[in-house]
Amino acid sequence: MKKDTILAVKDLYVNYYTYAGVVHALNGVSLEIYKGETMGLVGETGCGKSTLGHAIGGLLPNNARITGGSITLDGEELVGRSPEEMRIIRRDKLAYIFQNPAAALNPVMKVGDQIIEAIMVKENISKKEARERALELLKKLGIPEPEKFYKSYPHELSGGMRQRVMIAIALAKRPILVIADEPTSNLDVTIQAQILELMENLKKQFHQTTILITHDLGVVAQTCDRVTVMYAGTIVEVGSIYQVFKNPSHPYTQGLLRVVKFSETRSKLPTIPGTVPNLINPPSGCIFHPRCKYAKAICKKMKPELKEIENGHFVACHLYDNV
Ligand code: SF4
Prior knowledge:
about 325 residues
């Protein structure tokens, strides 16, 4: 573990127990998040990125179990904690920003009071001090007329403004780690751009450590320092934005980036052949092998490990076995 590692996930396995069978949602996921960085977690729907985000904060649904591995936040092991212990860890160290702020906000409480509550739940300060801090935070968030905004109820605000409240609540308690799960996907493009710009400014101002979960590689390129690409419950590539976008090395990442390029050039639509595998009966060996044009015999037998192919750039693919 590096000195400035805030979060270390090691060899994490998560299953969902469903009527159809056991869904192997995360299969040996390992990941480190460093202080002050924004890590993008990308992949198609069902690749396990939200499961990982929920597992970190003990927010998995009742039919899910962590069956192996470890999650260390700020040096503290989280796997095996009771729901009450996880509630305290979430309160003191973590903050989530979800896709649908309307569902996460209290509809009968003024937004200012919700921000104050987030500040006071962790810190023993007076309401007056908390109010001053909340107003200061709203100013830093670039909210016009913060006093008026402070007294509003969530239903009086637009979707973009509600998402700003969620960000304010998340930052108010000064968490060690923010997990933003598709924070802009319900917003129209202009508001989306404003929220992304806001998140970027906040990173500069607060040096906040953030995991940004998204299916949108454009969002990742704009806001993240590093990116982790997930496919069918496994991590297939990790690196800096420059490394992964300039030199995508896993065949799946290459396919994802071709799709992004299509939307830029409007050329012939490229697709990754095949479909995402059924995680009740996942393919043997490399889980991507049924869709991979480079698959060789070993790919069906052996799961590739993440290997460092250049400084800080990791890929799980047998093509790099001899590198
Ligand atoms: Fe393709 Fe084999 Fe690499 Fe998997 S390990 S991505 S099947 S080449």
